[in-house]
Amino acid sequence: MKVEASFVRSAASAGDLPRDGLAEVALVGRSNVGKSSLLNALVRRRIARTSAAPGKTRLANIYRVVRGSGAPFYVVDLPGYGYARGGSGEFEGLVAAYFARVRLKADTTSAVRSVRLQPDPAALLLVDSRHPGLESDLEAWAWLRDTVDGAAIVATKIDKLARGERIRALREFESACEHSVLPVSAVTGEGLDELWKLIDQLANNSSSRKEPRSSHNSNPPRATARRPRSE
Ligand SMILES: Nc1nc2c(ncn2[C@@H]2O[C@H](COP(=O)(O)OP(=O)(O)OP(=O)(O)O)[C@@H](O)[C@H]2O)c(=O)[nH]1
Ligand SMILES: [Mg+2]
Fold it and tell me: For the stretch 1-27, what's the b/e string if a residue is b when 16 or more beta carbons lie within 10 angstroms of its beta carbon?
């Protein structure tokens, strides 16, 4: 399927983030986990800068993506956590501001009415398949799952694990996160078709939170909806 992707801009603060109502899927994860590489693999172009040195992406880089005849949406490549000073897994600065827009929606004052027009961003949490159960990833997942309406977990660099290791690692991830984890590789392309399906769901759900859900889109999402506190 044809994929068109273009760089929109780098956002240094919440004011630079999209406000035109298109769906957004954010890539969240530790520095060096492979966020930018995965985006490049998905759109089959080196659109995002990658580096072996962690902390390459310090701004939120926004890309507009159209796949086949689907609706356009944004992919937001967020700065990695766990690299900045004291980064113990807490979301810092721009990442917190990005998702804070979700929380603003609870506010009904006229000052935030323009923000309310933007659909909730969905999030893909990327974890390195070689390192299951890192505290910073678990903290990030706990936070996302309580804060973001559509969130899913993707295990990157699966090509680096032998068959037995990958089964063990995925099992560890799934038991630590209590959620399914999709293994992918930006190098071999493994898992990318499944990831596109997941992204389509997240993007469609994101936009349908703003518009009434259309009848052809009634499948339940595989991604996690916000977890009730009592669960
Ligand atoms: N073998 C393998 N290497 C990968 C894969 N994905 C990324 N890498 C490598 O991992 C390193 C980091 O990749 P990036 O895509 O820059 O990581 P990032 O998460 O965007 O990093 P920051 O921008 O620093 O947050 C690079 O050396 C990539 O080549 C993968 O699927 N397989
Ligand atoms: Mg990056």
Answer: eeeebeeeeebeebeebbeeebbbbbb
